[in-house]
Amino acid sequence: QVQLVESGGGLVQAGGSLRLSCVVSGNIFSINAMGWYRQAPGKQRELVAAITSGGSTNYADSVKGRFTISRDNAKNTVYLQMNSLKPEDTAVYYCNADVYYTNGMDYWGKGTLVTVSS
Fold first, then answer.
1. Mean pLDDT throughout 45-74?
2. Whole-angstrom Cα distance, residue 80 to residue 37?
3. Which residues of 33-71 are buried (b: 16+ CB within 10 A; e: fewer)?
4. Are 118 and 99 spatial neighbours (Cβ–Cβ below 8 Å)?
């Protein structure tokens, strides 16, 4: 079994910052790509940012220059630093990880709510 636990969400004013963390635990041999997705009310889940095991990153156009994804492989943890937050960033943010144990599988956290007030 593999568990992903997110933390760091909350309420922040527009222009503020939050840092999300996601710890992966359980049966892990290696973790390949890790990422953050978000789902706003009435909208589909979308990719926010992703990072490979080697550190290559990609971002949604809407967050480029404001959000930074990073990972600590020793701690099986991925982070999302969110700066200059906007009301349209309000969503539930989900952590995703491609975990290899006996085979590769995709896992999701339960999500953490980020609310940005105007």
1. 97
2. 10
3. bbbbbbeeeeeeeeebbbbeeeeeeebeeebeeebbbeb
4. no
